[in-house]
Write a structure and sequence with these properties.
single chain, 435 residues, alpha/beta, six-stranded mixed beta sheet, 16 helices, 45% helix
């Protein structure tokens, strides 16, 4: 009786919780349900739970024999379970059990919005995955998604020869698919958000992903970096497929190629970016930065020249005091070490006078790679560098190969600023005023 009543209590509690967590259609319900907004309050189920809970508590406090033996049996069965589990692991020769989710499988000849139940929220994002050990793009998508407005579809394209629709409808998931979907569900449960897993048989993975994005009318497509092509080649292929599947009339789509240390965007037909949950909830710039949006750390390239000094003054006064500012010292050719050191010390004193802390690093070795590494290791969100006065043609640019390298390899945006140009025309207004 002790075990039965408490099992009923937890089962009734689970049914109450499922009414709030699982909003799918039910053919039968316990009566007395009140709907307020998007939630349905199960009064009947709650009353059943309360009756069972009160009975279980009464049994626990008043029936000494039942309580003693009930707890004794519970402890005894738990001990048997633990011992047999350890014995089973020894027989497996140390190999640990790997949990695999059991899924309710549904097979359809084609993907559709209504079939997947994705027509109830205004935003949809499609996350393309390949390996259970490489799901950082899914983690990023879940962390930034607002579950009240955005549906997250997690898709893997399963390569199969022949026509995809000829796959037997009753075919179970193989071991790899089950491991992959288990990893997806685990990530979703940790984030407390819902995902829609999807396996699409195909003989062309990239086409299947793009076609699914079109069919589901998603606003964002999130993918990992290709292990065969560069990010530039990958984006070109995606753009070509998107224009083809849209028959020359492409709809707005934002493609995001995500790696461990950077993210690249491609806005097709103007793009269609989904507001992040941190953007919707933020009430200040500080909250946005705390959520990882915007610029929190800035790296300024300083070569000791007057141009760099002026740029430093501008950046120092422009940045919010909460934004970290770092200096990457790259001595300009033609300047003596003492002159560079004097310029840096002067700017450092100015920052100290204003109560701003500086992180200073002298770049040694190859300038471009070292600055890119410094920005990556320091987790900077923006690199600001002065544009050389000689940066006018390909011959002059050859003198600054480190800037080209930085523009091509930096993990974050690079801003090149130029000093005010000397006017080349006559100011008529000033001339007339002088007369």
């Amino acid at each position: 009786a002790f075990g039965v009543v408490w099992s009923f209590v937890f089962k009734a509690l689970a049914m109450v919780v499922l009414r709030f967590r699982d909003h799918t259609h039910r053919d039968f319900k316990v009566p007395l349900n009140i709907r307020l907004g998007k939630y349905e309050f199960p009064i009947g189920l709650a009353l059943i739970f309360l009756v069972l809970f009160i009975a279980a508590i009464t049994n626990l406090l008043t029936k000494t024999t039942a309580t003693t033996w009930g707890m004794g049996f519970t402890a005894g069965f738990l001990a048997v379970f633990i011992l047999t589990e350890k014995a089973h692991e020894r027989r497996r020769k140390g190999e640990h059990h790997v949990h695999q989710e059991q899924f309710r499988q549904q097979t359809a000849p084609q993907v559709s919005l209504t079939g997947l139940g994705l027509d109830k929220k205004p935003y949809r994002k499609l996350v393309a995955i390949r390996s259970p050990n490489n799901l950082f793009m899914l983690e990023k998508a879940l962390a930034e998604s607002d579950p009240t407005t955005t549906s997250v579809v997690v898709m893997t394209a399963k390569v199969e020869p022949g026509v995809a629709t000829q796959r037997p409808p009753d075919q179970d998931l193989d071991t790899y698919d089950q491991q992959l979907m288990t990893a997806v569900v685990t990530r979703a449960e940790k984030s407390g958000k819902e995902v829609t897993p999807l396996i699409v048989p195909t003989n062309s993975p990239l086409f299947a992903v793009i076609n699914t994005a079109k069919t589901l009318e998603v606003q964002e497509l999130i993918m990992g970096v290709s292990n065969k092509n560069t990010a530039d080649e990958q984006l070109d292929q995606i753009a070509l497929y998107w224009f083809n599947v849209c028959e020359g009339n492409p709809k707005p789509l934002t493609v995001r190629i995500v790696s461990h240390d950077r993210e690249v965007h491609l806005d097709l037909a103007g793009g269609n970016r989904i507001p992040k949950i941190s953007e919707r909830q933020a009430r200040s710039v500080a909250e946005l930065r705390a959520a990882g949006i915007g610029v929190n750390r800035v790296l300024l390239v300083h070569d000791g020249t007057s141009i760099s000094h002026d740029l430093f003054q501008s950046v120092l006064t422009m940045l919010d005091p909460q934004v970290t500012l770092g200096l990457a010292i790259v001595p300009a050719s033609g300047l003596k070490a003492e002159e560079v050191e004097h310029a840096i010390r002067f700017d450092e004193a100015r920052a100290k006078q204003l109560g701003r802390a500086l992180s200073i690093a002298v770049v040694k070795g190859e300038t471009g790679p070292e600055i890119a590494k410094l920005a990556r290791d320091g987790q900077y969100d923006l690199v600001v560098a002065p544009l050389p006065e000689q940066w006018v043609d390909s011959i002059s640019r050859a003198r600054f190969p480190w800037l080209d390298y930085l523009l091509e390899h930096a993990h974050c945006p690079v801003s090149l600023t130029s000093p005010p140009a000397i006017p080349m025309e006559v100011d008529d207004d000033d001339d007339s005023a002088a007369r």
